Amino acid sequence: MSRNSGMLWGEKVYLRPLNGEDAELYYHMFYDAEARRLTGTQKHITKEQIAAYIERKAEDDSGVLLMIALKDNDETIGDIAIQDMDRNNRTANLRIAIGDEAHQGKGYGREALLLMLDYGFGILNLHRIELEVYAYNKRAAHVYESIGFVREGVRRQTLFYNHEYHDVIMMSMLENEYRERYISTKVK
Fold this sequence. Notes:
Layout: E1 8-9, E2 13-17, H1 22-29, H2 33-39, H3 47-59, E3 64-70, E4 76-86, E5 91-98, H4 108-122, E6 128-134, H5 138-147, E7 150-161, E8 164-174, H6 175-187
Parallel strand pairs: 5-6
Antiparallel strand pairs: 1-2, 2-3, 3-4, 4-5, 6-8, 7-8
Helix pairs in contact: 1-3
């Protein structure tokens, strides 16, 4: 995959559409034990199921799924999605996953989130973008809050993973909150 396929560009990462070649990448990237824990992935999926998922996503207009790649070497390190869009109410859900721990904690996810929020509020004309994070994923919750997501509540004991129940923290950002924080600073 080359830089020419990039859709959204940041300083360290760019976001690009998926293609059929990504099935193999997905298969390996998200079978890491820690990536599975952070995303709450319980089911084992075959390469064929992943390829079918990518095909379905290409036809799905209720969301935008993009791969996160590093600008310096084009390595794909994760994915990010705005999904479950409700056009009438201008709302959507956001999710992100960075596959390898070696790429976590370096600001790549933060930059990808900001690129996708800008796209969601500025191009897709969304009013509200929400997400969920498992309570044990404190690093992600901190990043979301530092970007400007607001905690709305907790769904208690929602995920059963590794012999334990875990809470899910619900967060959201509204378009005016995003614009006040990021757009008004650009205009000045």
